[in-house]
Amino acid sequence: MKKVGVAILGLGVVGGGTYKILTEHREFYKKIHGIDISVVSVLERKKERATALGLDVSKIASDISEICNNPEVKIVVEVMGGVEPAKTFVLAALNSGKSVVTSNKELFCKYSHELEKAAKSNGCGLFYEASCVGGVPVIRTLIDNLQGNKIMSMMGIINGTTNYILTKMASEGVSYKDVLKEAQKLGYAEADPTADVEGFDAAYKLSILSSLAFHTKIPHTKVYREGIKDVDLLDLKYGNRFGYTLKLLAIGKNSENGIEVRVHPAFVQNSHPLASVNDSYNAVYITGDSVEDVMLYGRGAGALPTGSAIVGDIIYCATHDNFNYSTFENNEDADPSIKFITNFESAYFMRFDAEDKPGVLSIVSSILGKHGISVAQVNQENEKKGGTVPLILITHETYEENVKKAVEEINGGKVAKVVSVVRVVT
Amino acid sequence: MKKVGVAILGLGVVGGGTYKILTEHREFYKKIHGIDISVVSVLERKKERATALGLDVSKIASDISEICNNPEVKIVVEVMGGVEPAKTFVLAALNSGKSVVTSNKELFCKYSHELEKAAKSNGCGLFYEASCVGGVPVIRTLIDNLQGNKIMSMMGIINGTTNYILTKMASEGVSYKDVLKEAQKLGYAEADPTADVEGFDAAYKLSILSSLAFHTKIPHTKVYREGIKDVDLLDLKYGNRFGYTLKLLAIGKNSENGIEVRVHPAFVQNSHPLASVNDSYNAVYITGDSVEDVMLYGRGAGALPTGSAIVGDIIYCATHDNFNYSTFENNEDADPSIKFITNFESAYFMRFDAEDKPGVLSIVSSILGKHGISVAQVNQENEKKGGTVPLILITHETYEENVKKAVEEINGGKVAKVVSVVRVVT
Predict the structure, then answer these.
(1) Prediction ipTM score
(2) At B326, is the pLDDT very low, low, confident or very high (cuts 50, 70, 90)?
(3) Between B146, B293, B308, which is nearest A291 by CB?
(4) Cis upstream peptide for B273 (omega within 30°)
(5) What is the dihedral of CA A148, A150, A153, A159, to 10 degrees?
(6) Chain A residue numbers touching B28 (CB-CB < 8 A)
(7) Are A39 and A74 spatial neighbours (Cβ–Cβ below 8 Å)?
């Protein structure tokens, strides 16, 4: 029986989950896949993490070179996160002829070309399903299933922490700050939540997914990014009256005019499949020219779901002889021939504090009209507060820049002040 | 550049869609995948189908042997449907060293072992993503992504025609017969709708999917099957009051006690992701021991979505040198060591015509209790009709056989007659 030795770099949440899956399923994989996969080495400074997993401390390598020089190791699993020392270690493994499976979105997003070049020149595999959306099979699907499509767009809820926070805010009417505190207590959010709540994590993933979908390197620096820190409970409430749910969406679109990639809060209609993706669940909704719409849904994080993606890659690597690589000849720069669209087209939800007197709607909608924005729905709430009432408009599709100009003009007048502007997916 | 000649057997809906995708994307595939894929031959008796696609009639082969002997043909696409002559043609192609991509669920479900044996012994690939759930990437996901999991269960809406009918019945309050007539007029249902509405189509697909998920051949003859012909509008209405939506579900479960596979109408809670899978959309909800829950959603049929799955397989086949096969050494018989569970465990929706007098609920629930069935919710509707009123119960989980015995005993008495029993997914 073919023996496949695995080394795991980092025994944190995902490394531990991967170790657990591989160990508990060893006999199952022998029976089903005809291969004997075992963890033969780990790199982890905290010895107690290894012993807590029941791992023999003799398997703890003293450094990466010990793993690179170990002939039993066929596949190196990198689950350390961050760029360094992960990058140095992954390159060392590839250059020693080991295939690599990684969950490291930041590393792969920033250095895919350099890593794939090393993998290719050494005849090794480089797999990264676990880098995006945990257990959701989106990378394999893009590479080996939808690869006959021209992908027109993808919309994803690809960060579990922010989706948990927005779901709680909506269902329990609790403010962003309070839900964040609770999420941190429960371990659903980091002590420093910046990467999640400001959309960096989603932007890295969108960079990887849209590069695959659109067949050109989309650097994360090209992703327009807005987080959820300023999401106001009142907007969730008013949006709900129009049948909308607020999500942090990662959106990639590809058309003849160019490519647009953006991460920001957006309203989706309650009837859209993405609207019911709640709590820490994630989903990616992909539209291709042949397949039409496909949605992939599941656990976007967690020890075992992410471990499932890693182990899927390990078995794939162990049972295939030839590996595919993307063909992007760049790391952090985009192909100069690609045009990135920044003046997005979207519908908008606009909330105003308006003077409580007749004619205000006429003035506001006249200014909007002047900037090419037509109004689809209006709601004038009867909730007076300090002399003003809330006025809520949903616009038809228009351009981001038109909205900015209209907001400026309305705020410059006296009858209404813009409180919130939220993009609406149509 | 690598040239890949494709022959298509059958230019019906899916064959035509596949031809269209391959032809229109030829330059795109050269650029992106570095291969030149072209349709070099077709087998189709109706010449007008070829000419309608703009296909040169010189490419119409006179018989299968012409295709088998054509050295330009590397991949044969079988989209004829039915067992014969498809089986003979597929075996001939494999035995001539051609890889095969098929959308034929009945053929693959009934003869997977024979076909895979021929593929393996000839070093050819045999691909069948399009045989199940159209453009939804469920087969590749099971083989190359979730293969490190022990799959515990799958629940699918895997027949578009029945989902269209049930969605229409629920949203418009129209009877089964009337919606079916309309669906036939629109081409969403066949003139003879038996295969769809009686669940045969779903049973074939469940056979293939559960064989892959549970790593043992699950013959379609082991699938318990009930169609949607007897679905009563009133049950949809009353179910809705409990927050349920009715779907034709294909369910596969694997536990230490054995395997159960069944296709039947069932209520799912409105908050379950499957409840919002409407119209002709399909979805498969898979639960694995590591990945937890994954749902794959999309178009389960249609020329281009199914063509997308076929073309995905063609490109995969053209870009991989080694192919995997399942290991089931049987076609239509199950491994004798597998125990199939037929006394399903489920919750139930039960509707009675009950006498309109006090004490009826007590009698009915006492009989249920005697058979080990406990009641979770009750609804006594105030809708008198011919001396009786509707009484609706939702039970906790119990066994199918208990329900049958209780129904018999209740129907043998005078106070209530059972009108409908519908399984409820909990």
Answers:
(1) 0.95
(2) confident
(3) B308
(4) no
(5) 40
(6) 150
(7) no
What does the DSSP 8-state code read for residue A385? B
**How many CB atoms sit inside 10 A of residue B198's CB?**
17
State the pLDDT confidence band at B83, using cuts at 50, 70 and 90: very high
Predicted model pTM:
0.96
| B271 contact residues in A (CB cutoff 8 A) | 276
Q: Pick from B409, B316, B390: which is nearest to B349 by CA?
A: B390
Closest by CA position to A141, among listed B139, B160, B100: B139
> Residues in chain A, how many?
426
CA of A19 to nearest chain B CA: how many angstroms apart?
Answer: 12
> Which single residue is written with the structure tokens 């043609």?
B89
- Say which residue the tokens 């000839």 belong to: B122
Which has the closest alpha carbon to B196: B227, B164, B224, B157?
Answer: B227
Strand order in the sheet with A126-127: A35-43, A2-9, A73-78, A99-102, A126-127
Three-state SS for B133? coil
Out of A94-98, B17-21, B186-190, B376-380, pick the least confident: B186-190
A204: left (phi over 0), alpha (psi -120 to 50) or beta: alpha
- For chain A, the first-to-last Cα distance in angstroms comes to 54
Annotated catalytic residue within A205, A217, A247, A253:
A205
Measured CA to CA, the distance from residue B154 to residue B284 in angstroms comes to 7
CB atoms within 10 A of CB A86: 21
DSSP state of A382: -
Catalytic residue among B205, B217, B222, B247: B205
Decide: B131 and B208 in contact? Cβ < 8 Å. yes
Name the stretches of chain A with pLDDT < 50: none
From the list B141, B150, B307, the residue facing A28 with the nearest CB is B150
Q: Nearest C-alpha of chain B: how many angstroms from A389? A: 34
Nearest residue on chain A to B292, alpha-carbon basis: A305
The answer to whether B269 touches B258, Cβ cutoff 8 Å, is: no
B205 catalytic per annotation: yes
Nearest to B295 among A33, A291, A297 (CB): A297
* Pairs across A and B, CB distance < 8 A: 167
Question: What's CA B131's distance to the chain center, in Å?
Answer: 9
